[in-house]
Amino acid sequence: MHARSPPPPVVLGTSVVAVAAAAPPIAAMGTRSVALVLLAAVLLQALLPASAAEGLVRIALKKRPIDENSRVAARLSGEEGARRLGLRGANSLGGGGGEGDIVALKNYMNAQYFGEIGVGTPPQKFTVIFDTGSSNLWVPSAKCYFSIACFFHSRYKSGQSSTYQKNGKPAAIQYGTGSIAGFFSEDSVTVGDLVVKDQEFIEATKEPGLTFMVAKFDGILGLGFQEISVGDAVPVWYKMVEQGLVSEPVFSFWFNRHSDEGEGGEIVFGGMDPSHYKGNHTYVPVSQKGYWQFEMGDVLIGGKTTGFCASGCSAIADSGTSLLAGPTAIITEINEKIGATGVVSQECKTVVSQYGQQILDLLLAETQPSKICSQVGLCTFDGKHGVSAGIKSVVDDEAGESNGLQSGPMCNACEMAVVWMQNQLAQNKTQDLILNYINQLCDKLPSPMGESSVDCGSLASMPEISFTIGGKKFALKPEEYILKVGEGAAAQCISGFTAMDIPPPRGPLWILGDVFMGAYHTVFDYGKMRVGFAKSA
């Protein structure tokens, strides 16, 4: 007799179920036997987890509402962060810092979306923020003895893990609203059904201040690039790809904005779930590794251009930022249109009263806008744009203050006034109307790193805010960019926009946080170095 070759595998969906080689040939089995084999294969396929069948790994995200305690903590720690970083006036960030500067501005206090991971063998569970705006993994350490915050959270115990490897290299991360310090260790990290081996992470032994004491999460799992990783540690995502744990070098975020609390969405490693989005994604290339950074076009308020990013701005997709941060000039215009109450800026009004007419005259004379503030004496000019002496270093800023000089805020206010006036002139407004309008905008300047309140009953009259990405306009409706705090008569509404200025060459920069990613399903394609957006389902 000839040797029988084994029958081919039965292919069902994306999984392959092999039929045993020792099984009798199909002809000898009869119809009933064939049916039983096929039924068994179908049942086996049905019993497989959906993620295994699809080649995807799903992490459920929990959502919690923003509460007043977190808002207060965010405000206090944000103001402290601004003082510590030397951020003055419109919250400018000097260009001399490293790539970690934006990490140093991060405010996790209003974060709403968390997921669970395990560290060690057996896994010790931690609730973390999956943060595309940073690149390290850190969790509190059992060796954290002197920070009260550690005692409010799960702590990693290396002695209870059979896969722990000592490293000991010191580490520290400074955020805008807090800091952590500790040392590196290595262990297995469980993410969903995946086990990432030999992962370098930080055991936090110091979590000073208010920020992490009231935080609802234990740690951070960074999904940014290694270029901004403290200690040059290899990020968890890199290890997933290197160890062949995902079918594709792609991960995606879906935030369930229809849920007030509880199931908040999913992060999918290895691809994306078609039920999470509508239509096709618009992709843009990563323009600079470090953050998931890309180029963005004009920003529109109610369909009308603001002009600020018409020639291009940079943006980053940041799941670890709850709000949507952008240049103060545009954020102030948005706040004015939605009726948000900000903080009065005396510097802004001073610029308008003393230099407003001169700035208008220079614009009408077609002076290069980037040179105007240096011509009126409020900024210096570096060949491309106005530069305030106050943003060169914290030492310079403090020296300026001691001499009674306020060049930083005045320069920022002047440059904002130029942008606003350009926009109004393009709409053929009269000079008197323009100066009055600029004064109104001064009243709407937001607090540095802070929030602005709006009337909850006015959402219907608020405009759409649109961002141009990949040549397509991505609009946010009022119900998508206004965050509600509390319920019933006690409910308050806050603007989802916050101000942050980063000067050229790295800026102007937008940080598209959860406010934007909640409305648009976001794909992070590591293989093709691109970011994609489609309307969330």
UniProtKB/TrEMBL annotation:
InterPro entries the UniProt entry points to: Aspartic_peptidase_A1 (IPR001461), Aspartic_peptidase_AS (IPR001969), PEPTIDASE_A1 (IPR033121), Peptidase_aspartic_dom_sf (IPR021109), Phytepsin (IPR033869), SapB_1 (IPR007856), SapB_2 (IPR008138), Saposin-like (IPR011001)
SMART domains: SapB (SM00741)
TM ranges: 38-61
Segments forming domain Peptidase A1: 113-534
Entry keyword set: Aspartyl protease, Disulfide bond, Glycoprotein, Hydrolase, Membrane, Protease, Signal, Transmembrane, Transmembrane helix, Vacuole, Zymogen
One GO cellular component term noted in the UniProt record for this chain: vacuole
An example Gene Ontology molecular-function term: aspartic-type endopeptidase activity
GO biological process: lipid metabolic process; proteolysis
Disulfide bonds, paired cysteine numbers: 144-150
Predominant localisation class: other
Record domain Saposin B-type: where: 343-383, 407-448
Domain of life according to the entry: Eukaryota
Subcellular location: Vacuole
Family: Belongs to the peptidase A1 family.
Described purpose of this protein according to its UniProt entry: Involved in the breakdown of propeptides of storage proteins in protein-storage vacuoles.
Name of the protein described by the UniProt record: Peptidase A1 domain-containing protein
Lineage: Eukaryota, Viridiplantae, Streptophyta, Embryophyta, Tracheophyta
